[in-house]
Specification:
4 helices; binds zinc ion; 150 residues; 9 strands; 22% strand; three-stranded mixed beta sheet
Length: 150
């Protein structure tokens, strides 16, 4: 199975009600509440919004050939970035078995030179960024080299 088919199947399984997203609430415009899909009367609206959000994540899925972050091993096929909350929780395990690593799109960025992944959100107290921002672009430590350090 290709990556594209796996993602499509995951979205379809949720829309048909076979699998639930990990964590997703639909916003109900003008009604001031969120819809978690549990009430029968707003189930259709919930599924419609969920489908839209999940398809949007699939279309904007990020990819990196590897990590430029210390402590991360080279993935077999690459790193995928998304908001995984809108997919079934089993999806990450399936993708990992296919040789991909799954990361959160709001915690990582790509180096503008080598296109490998760097973490932009701290992973713990001792974390330090392994990249620099230069004129609006992100450059990983491997690309800027240690001699360039201030
Ligand atoms: Zn780089």
């Amino acid at each position: 199975m290709t990556l594209e088919r796996v993602l499509k199947a995951a979205v379809n399984a949720m829309i048909r009600g076979h699998h639930s997203p990990y964590c997703y609430s639909a916003h109900v415009p003008g009604k001031g509440y969120v819809n978690d899909g549990s009430a029968g009367f707003d189930r259709a609206d919930y599924l419609k919004q969920l489908e839209w959000s999940a398809r949007c994540e699939v279309d904007n899925l990020g990819f990196a050939p590897g990590y430029a972050e210390p402590g991360y091993a080279k993935p077999k096929r690459g790193v995928l970035f998304a908001n995984w909350n809108v997919f079934p929780d089993k999806l990450q395990g399936i993708l990992e078995r296919m040789g991909y690593e799954c990361e959160w799109s709001d915690e990582w960025a790509l180096c503008d030179e080598c296109e490998k992944a760097v973490r932009t959100e701290p992973s713990g107290y001792f974390w330090e960024p392994a990249f620099k921002e230069k004129e609006g672009s992100i450059v990983c430590r491997e690309c800027y080299g240690d001699d360039d350090d201030e």
